[in-house]
């Protein structure tokens, strides 16, 4: 297991927005999705801490040394 990045975002109730599904009954089901209002504003000035010895390859986190 590789833990290469941890994202923590504290949000308030007013930060959430409901994004209703356009798929009705019989068309793939109904998915209820929630997003963050104005994510760029909420994350502005925040830092990302990420391990230098891990890279993303094929959509997965892998050690840079190949092990």
Name the descriptors.
1 helix, two-stranded antiparallel sheet, 67 residues, 4 strands, mainly beta
3D architecture notes:
The protein is mainly beta. It has one domain. It has 1 helix and 4 strands. The strands form 2 sheets. Strands 1-2 form a two-stranded antiparallel ribbon. Strand 3 and strand 4 form a beta hairpin. The chain is flat and about 50 Å long. It starts with 15 loop residues before the first strand and ends with a strand. The mean pLDDT is 77.
Offer a quick outline of the entry.
By secondary structure, the protein is mainly beta. The protein contains one helix and four strands, in the order ββαββ. It starts with 15 loop residues before the first strand and ends with a strand.
List the helices and strands and how they pair.
Layout: E1 16-19, E2 33-36, H1 39-43, E3 54-57, E4 60-63
Antiparallel strand pairs: 1-2, 3-4
Q: Structural class per helix/strand content?
A: mainly beta
**H and E string:** EEHEE
- Percentage beta strand: 15-25%
Low-confidence stretches: none
Helix content: under 10%
Biggest beta-sheet profile: 2 strands, antiparallel
Radius of gyration: 18 Å
What count of helical segments does DSSP give?
1
